[in-house]
Design goal:
It is a single chain. Helices cover about 75% and strands about 0% of the residues. The protein has one domain. Helix 2 packs across helix 13, helix 6 packs across helix 8 and helix 7 runs antiparallel to helix 14. The chain has 15 helices and no strands.
Length: about 325
């Protein structure tokens, strides 16, 4: 195994269903769920305070997975305890901090800005991989990331690359940039997690991540108007608790475990592609030539960047 290879999968994961060993399918599901989360999070801005939304999201997600994960948690507890510091750090960063900052940023910025910033995700992960693991991007990975980034820009700017000069950045963009740096750190650090069942990992991190938000939640309940218990807000909580939380994190963590953080990172670019498709399907936007060109560039870049290096394939 080379230094850039992900750690071997645990027995409990490899003995699972077919989809558990299909990293590209898993990471595509992740991107689809996170595209929906960006839309829902933007709609929730002004209706559900960011810490409240993040806390309830992870508290409900924890309650959903706990019955399924309990026996695995009991079996995996010695391994969790042996790397308790890493597990707590992952809970604080990837669960508590990242999502709270993401929802906070959506109160102050527009969706196109966050999508543009999110396109820097593969670069952020590459930097953290170099710092923490001494893993460099291969030439193919760098080319694929660049190709997919161009595709994202084509879609977001509607084929007019000169529109990039008219985009302004604000407080929300700075907040989201900080969130992106934190999530890049989380993505790479998941490779240092103990070899435990996927349900054990998400149950522990969801629960600890939610608990870490309790002090901020107490402050927010006094400092800001509270969430109304109406149908739109309850549906929002249901969506963010199930799809971008339980489903997406199980798929993302497993995908990174299978192919490593650098090869998984280009799937960040698939998120705005799915967001554009959702706008076409649900918001009535018309499919245009720049959509097709952008989709083709993104998918080509992801294919190039996420392939296993030739030297590794021949071993």
């Amino acid at each position: 195994m080379s230094a850039s290879d992900p750690p071997p999968a645990s027995a409990s994961a490899t003995s699972g269903h077919w989809i558990a060993n299909q990293p590209y399918v898993l990471l595509s599901i992740t991107a689809l769920c996170w595209a929906g989360n960006a839309i829902v999070g933007r709609l929730a801005a002004g209706h559900i305070p960011p810490v409240t939304l993040s806390f309830l999201r992870w508290a409900f997600a924890f309650l959903i997975v706990l019955p399924l994960a309990w026996k695995h948690l009991v079996q995996d507890w010695p391994a969790i305890r042996s790397k308790l510091g890493v597990m707590l750090l992952l809970s604080l960063t990837g669960i508590g901090a990242f999502n709270t900052l993401q929802y906070w940023s959506l109160e102050h910025t527009q969706a196109i800005n966050t999508l543009l910033l999110q396109s820097a995700g593969p670069l952020v992960i590459a930097v953290w991989s170099l710092i923490l693991l001494r893993v460099h991007l291969t030439l193919a990975q760098a080319f694929g990331v660049l190709l997919s980034l161009i595709g994202v820009l084509v879609i977001l700017l509607r084929g007019d690359l000169t529109a990039l000069s008219s985009i302004t950045f604000n407080k929300g963009d700075l907040i989201f940039s900080a969130a992106l740096v934190i999530f890049g750190f989380y993505s790479v650090m998941t490779l240092k997690r103990p070899a435990i069942h996927g349900l054990s990992f998400v149950a522990f991190t969801f629960g600890c991540g939610a608990a870490s938000l309790l002090p901020l939640l107490a402050w927010e309940l006094f400092a800001r108007p509270r969430m109304a218990l109406d149908l739109p807000n309850l549906l929002t909580l249901f969506y963010v608790s199930v799809f971008p939380s339980v489903v997406a994190y199980l798929c993302f963590n497993r995908g990174v475990q299978l192919i490593g953080a650098n090869r998984a990172a280009p799937f960040f670019h698939v998120t705005p592609v799915f967001g554009s498709v959702m706008a076409i399907v649900f918001l009535g936007e018309r499919l245009q030539a720049f959509h097709v060109i952008g989709f083709t560039l993104v998918l080509s870049g992801v294919f190039v960047a996420s392939r296993k290096p030739a030297a590794a394939r021949t071993r």
